[in-house]
Specification:
Number of helices: 6
Strand content: 15-25%
Radius of gyration: 18 Å
Number of domains: 1
Distance between the termini: 55 Å
Number of strands: 7
Order of helices and strands: HEHHHEEEEHEEH
Strand order of the largest sheet: 4-5-6-7
Length: 194
C-alpha cells in the first residue's frame, strides 16, 4: 500500500468556484432562474430560504444536466438553448424539434415516492412551463435522477439512485398564469433594485 497523507482541500469552496465559473458563461441580464428562486422564497420560505447553499449538490445536478445535454446534442444535433421573452433569459436543457417538446433534466435528493404533480416539484413545473410558453408548445419531457431513490433502505441508507421520465402536458391557461406570476416577480425585483 502506498503512503497517504491528507492534503488541505476545501471541497465546498472548489464547488462554489466551479459554479461561479459556470455562471460567467451566461448572457448578462435577468434570468428566469433568479426570478424563480426569489419567488419560491416568498411562496415557501421554510423550504427555500434555508441556510447556506450546497454547492456540491448543485454541482452534481449541473453535471447531470450538462452531460445529458452534451451527449444528446452530439447524438441528435441539439443541446442547451438560450432563449428570451419579455427581457427574461432562459436556458433550456434540450428541445425535441420533431415532437416540438422542451426537454429538461433534473437531479434531486427529493424522494422518488413523491408524485411528480406534488408541490415538491412546483418550481420545476413553473420553470418548464415558462420554457414551453417561450417555444409555443404545451409539451415537455422531464427526466429526473433521484439520487436517493425513494429513501426505501432506511437506517442511514437512502436507497438506490433511480431515473424516471415523464411527458408533461400543460394547458395554455397554466402557461399564462406561470408567466404572469414570473413577470410580477420580475417587476418587484426591478422596483426594489434587486
Amino acid at each position: 500500500m502506498p503512503q497517504a497523507r491528507p492534503l488541505a482541500y476545501d471541497f465546498e469552496s472548489a464547488c462554489k468556484r466551479w459554479q461561479e465559473e459556470r455562471s460567467r458563461g451566461r448572457s448578462r441580464g435577468r434570468h428566469l432562474s433568479e426570478i424563480l428562486k426569489r419567488l419560491m422564497k416568498r411562496i415557501d420560505p421554510e423550504r427555500f430560504s434555508g441556510g447556506g447553499l450546497d454547492y456540491a449538490l448543485f454541482q452534481g445536478g449541473f453535471i447531470w444536466e450538462d452531460t445529458n445535454s452534451m451527449i444528446l446534442g452530439q447524438q441528435l444535433g441539439s443541446g442547451q438553448i438560450e432563449t428570451e421573452k419579455d427581457g427574461i433569459l432562459m436556458t433550456l436543457d434540450d428541445f425535441d424539434a420533431e415532437r416540438w417538446r422542451v426537454i429538461e433534466y433534473k437531479s434531486t435528493k427529493i424522494s422518488s415516492k413523491n408524485p411528480i404533480r406534488s408541490s415538491s416539484f412546483y418550481h420545476w413545473h413553473v420553470q418548464i412551463g415558462c420554457y414551453c410558453l417561450t417555444l409555443d408548445t404545451l409539451e415537455a419531457e422531464l427526466v429526473v435522477r433521484f439520487d436517493n431513490g425513494g429513501y426505501e433502505l432506511g437506517g442511514g441508507r437512502f436507497g438506490k439512485t433511480v431515473g424516471k421520465k415523464w411527458l408533461l402536458i400543460f394547458t395554455k391557461r397554466e402557461l399564462r398564469e406561470y408567466w404572469t406570476m414570473i413577470l410580477r416577480e420580475r417587476d418587484r425585483m426591478d422596483e426594489e433594485g434587486a
